[in-house]
Each structure stands twice: as structure tokens, then as C-alpha cells.
Amino acid sequence: MTILDRLKALQEGLNEFYAGPYRSTFAKAGQQEEDLFMLLVMGEALGIDNPASYYTMELLPIIYEDFHAWHLRMGMEHSPLENFSCC
């Protein structure tokens, strides 16, 4: 076994030592995120209103400040919304 093989094995062992305990936490968080996304998409498909939309109305003034930079990053010269012009 060469020194490079030993270093690679040491690197893999250290990676497993540090990242191993968190693997299940990341998997669970990913599953919860996917479950929430499915709930929102299926609820909208069935005609159920999104309950978060009422609370996000308060965030519109904050979002409005960044909207112009966002649509320019997305490659749109002008606002894609008819009643939401910023240019």
C-alpha cells in the first residue's frame, strides 16, 4: 500500500467520522422539505388555498426592493408582471 493510498483511506475515514453522524439529520430534513412541497403542490392542485399566502403579504415591501435585481439576473429586461413594474 503506497502513501497516497494510505492518505486517501485516512481522508475517507476522517470524512466518515465528521459527516457520518449528520447524514441521517440531512436526510430527514430533505424528506421534510419534500413533504412540505408535495403538500403545497397537491393542495393547490385540489383547489385548497395556501395558508401561508395571507402571511406573506407582509413581506411584499421587502421583496419589492430586491425584485428589480432579481428579474435582471433572470434575464428579463422589464418586470414580467403587468401590475408590478419597477423599471
Provide a compact summary of the structure.
The chain has 87 residues and is an all-alpha fold.
Helix proportion: over 70%
Number of helices: 3
Shape summary = elongated
SSE-based structural type: mainly alpha
Q: Which sheet architecture does the biggest sheet show?
A: none
What would you report as the Rg, rounded to the nearest angstrom?
23 Å
Order of helices and strands: HHH
Number of DSSP strand runs:
0
Separation of the first and last Cα atoms: 64 Å
Mean pLDDT: 83
Our estimate of the beta-strand percent is under 5%
Give the uncertain stretches in residue-range form.
none
* Total domain count: 1
What do you see in this structure?
The chain has 87 residues and is mostly helical. The protein has one domain (3-74). The chain is built from three helices and no strands. The chain has helices spanning 3-45, 52-56, 60-73.
Keywords, separated by commas or semicolons:
87 residues, mainly alpha, 3 helices, 0% strand
Strand and helix layout:
Elements lengths: L2 H43 L6 H5 L3 H14 L14
